[in-house]
Structures are given as C-alpha cells and as structure tokens.
Amino acid sequence: MLRCNLISIGRLKEDYWRKACEEYEKRLCSFCRFTITELPESRLPDNPGKSQILAALETEADRVLKLTGDSFVAALCIEGESVSSERMADLIRTLSLHGTSEISFIIGSSFGLSDRVKKHASIRLSMSAMTFPHQLARVMLCEQIYRAFQIINHGKYHK
C-alpha cells in the first residue's frame, strides 16, 4: 500500500484544524498509509534578519530531509506548479503504477522552505497564487490528497 506522508513545520494550534486533518487522515486509511508529522518551527526574534531566517530554514531543512528517505518529495512553495485536482490524482496514480512506494508532501514554516529542500524535491507544488495560513494550507492539502484518491478510485466525493 502506498505511503503518503505530510511533513509540516509547526503544529496546529486550534482544535478545529486538528479535527479537520484527523477526519481526512481517517478517510485516507482506506487508500494509503497516511501520516502527518509535525516538526518544530525554529525560534526567531520578533524582527529577524535575513541571515537569521536563512539559518532557521536550514535547521528546519535538516529535520525535514531526515524524514524523506527515498520517498518522492513534493515541496509546497509559492513558486511551485499549480495543479488541478485531476492532475494531482494523475500524479499519485502514475507514481504508484511506476513503483513509487512513498510520497512525502512538505509544508514549510511561515518563512517557507530552504532552497535545499526545494532542490531535493522531485516536484514543487503551489496551492494557489494566494497566500493562506499554514494551518489552512495543511487542511487543504489533506483534502486534496483525499480527493485525488477518490478520483483514482472513481468515488462519489469528486464531481
């Protein structure tokens, strides 16, 4: 069974975000082994300088890259490719048909992802040209992964 990992910097603070992700996690267990891993966000001063931000992103990159192993890595970043739900389903289907056993989706901190993570990624994806809070982006990604599996399996969820 395909393993899908969502690796995120930072944790969900509000209960309603956690419950939404838990609902999709429960639904996804029929299609894949889905896990969510929260990694700590680097602590920065209130007004960090560019070098402090870059150092924090590199520390976060070390934590992220330790978890990706040999998986296909999809980094979520603003400069990534914006794909439709159908294209996302096609990507997952194609990867699994060609022997990929694990996909890791990466969501960075409020400062994004280091260039090292982006370069390591097999694909860069963008949720939208709009900016969303990280908590909402995580729920949206969970929903889109679930929708992709519904599309692949001809489920009623996607119309």
UniProtKB/TrEMBL annotation:
It holds the Pfam family SPOUT_MTase. Its main location: cytoplasm. S-adenosyl-L-methionine binds at L76, G108, M127, S128, A129, M130, T131, F132. It comes from the Bacteria. InterPro entries: Alpha/beta_knot_MTases, RlmH-like, tRNA_m1G_MTases_N. Gene3D superfamilies: 3.40.1280.10. CDD domains: RlmH-like. GO terms for cellular component: cytoplasm. Its EC number is 2.1.1.177. It is found in: Cytoplasm. GO terms for molecular function: rRNA (pseudouridine-N3-)-methyltransferase activity. It is an enzyme of class 2 (transferase). Keywords: Cytoplasm, Methyltransferase, rRNA processing, S-adenosyl-L-methionine, Transferase. The keyword Lyase does not apply. The keyword Ligase does not apply. It catalyses: pseudouridine(1915) in 23S rRNA + S-adenosyl-L-methionine = N(3)-methylpseudouridine(1915) in 23S rRNA + S-adenosyl-L-homocysteine + H(+). HAMAP family: 23SrRNA_methyltr_H (MF_00658). PANTHER family: METHYLTRANSFERASE (PTHR33603), RIBOSOMAL RNA LARGE SUBUNIT METHYLTRANSFERASE H (PTHR33603:SF1). Specifically methylates the pseudouridine at position 1915 (m3Psi1915) in 23S rRNA. Belongs to the RNA methyltransferase RlmH family. Homodimer. This is Ribosomal RNA large subunit methyltransferase H. It comes from Caproicibacter fermentans. The lineage of its organism: Bacteria, Bacillati, Bacillota, Clostridia, Eubacteriales. The gene is rlmH.
